[in-house]
Design goal:
Two copies of one chain form a homodimer. By secondary structure, chain A is of the alpha/beta class. Chain A is built from ten helices and seven strands. In chain A, α1 (about 15-30) links the parallel β1 and β2. The first copy, chain A, starts with 8 loop residues before the first strand and ends in a 7-residue tail after the last helix. The model of chain A has no long low-confidence stretch (mean pLDDT about 95). The interface of A and B includes residues 39, 77, 167 and 171 of A. β2 (about 40-45) of chain A pairs antiparallel with β2 (about 40-45) of chain B, so a sheet runs across the interface.
């Protein structure tokens, strides 16, 4: 429970750096502020050396859990009152983070799930644009299991294409081609019954916005931004 | 002396948050990176609660020195190998920061001075767009005192107008009107003999770029970005 007014936010970042920058920019943009002092105190550890989350879930690379736990501990020591991590797939290692600290960890997965249920209480099927690690760890599937909501995700060739798009976005390429391919993958989820699309990977909103898909888009970065500002400025967390 | 390869950068930020975001965005943009792991490890303390630097120099507000020293110490404890601060005026309190830590503090003032002397070795007069605190603490004047370079800064009504522009920029207003007024102030410095204009305040590049002034523009944020990447990726600091 976070009940301190103007709490300090610790950000497990660098996963990737572009998504962390996007998160930071949106926190500033969405904080009502006339002076510097009205803004949220964020301590951002933009650590690009964290081992690849998707490779770790696939069993083809080292686990990022020890480094994430160390970052969390250092953010707590530096004064953070709660933690956020603008990367969906890395939430496969959430237990290691939460276990390393005594402050709350606000999950982007659970907050996005809650936002979906608030905005679309009668939904039966949600499409989630997610990376392979997020899919294989079943992060969204498990979050929605008690809600009676079926989750559809990119499969087969679409799944491989999605991962290639992520690599391109991470290398700084945010061209129209990437957006169009992402739109095709989203359309595939809609064809399979998705009533809404969840941008369940923080690289997705770097190229895709709500005008680009034929169903409502719930952006996990935007959800985390809103909840971070709320909790930092005196709201209380269920985390 | 920084001689560790891939050093971690501690950023004293939030002074203001918009300038810190601009610094972060430019570090990412200017780092050659194909994957997340090629990026620089930055720990950014975006602390908007630091007391106003300009008021402190004027003697009308509390000193930010104790809080800056505390932030510096926490960044060192969190693993920073050297420190930077994307705010010129706050360098009036540089001694308190450097005195609190055993890692180097890379000064935006000294790095900008060095960049000016490298690019314009024969210069006799530089105009510096600087805030009242930066001017009254004579940060640029003292940095250039041994170089035979005269520093001209906004005075009288221009100085007051410049401070009003900063407040507007900090409140999120980056309109064309602000750019045009900033151009008029820069033109005043050129009329007084400035051969180049130094953006000696990290809010200035949020509204003004090199195409907006009639003399070469040296942007202190850009200089700090370049030197930060260089030092972080194995260069050595004179700090």
């Amino acid at each position: 429970m976070i009940n301190k007014k103007y709490a300090t936010v610790g950000v497990l970042g660098g996963l990737g750096p572009g998504a962390t920058l996007d998160f930071f920019a949106k926190v500033l943009e969405n904080t009502p502020a006339a002076t510097d002092q009205d803004h949220v105190h964020l301590i951002i550890d933009n650590n690009p050396q964290v081992p690849d989350r998707n490779a770790a879930v696939a069993g083809t690379g080292p686990s990022p859990a020890p480094m994430l736990a160390e970052m969390a501990k250092r953010l707590e020591n530096a004064g953070a009152d709660f933690l956020v991590m603008p990367c969906n797939a890395a939430h496969a290692f959430e237990d290691a983070i939460a276990g390393a600290v005594s402050i709350p960890f606000v999950s982007i997965i659970k907050e996005t799930r809650d936002e979906v249920m608030r905005s679309f209480p009668d939904i039966k099927c949600a499409g989630v644009l997610a990376s392979s690690g997020c899919i294989d760890a079943e992060l969204y599937k498990r979050a929605f299991v008690d809600k009676g909501v079926q989750i559809v995700v990119p499969t087969g060739a679409d799944r491989d294409t999605f991962m290639q798009l992520l690599c391109k976005i991470k290398s700084g390429n945010q061209s129209g081609d990437i957006k169009r391919t992402m739109q095709v993958i989203a359309a595939g989820l809609i064809a399979r019954g998705a009533e809404i699309i969840v941008a369940g990977c923080t690289e997705v909103p770097l190229v895709l916005d709500e005008t680009d898909v034929a169903r409502p888009l719930v952006n996990s970065t935007d959800v985390l931004v809103t909840r971070t500002i709320d909790y930092a400025q005196g709201g209380s967390s269920s985390a």
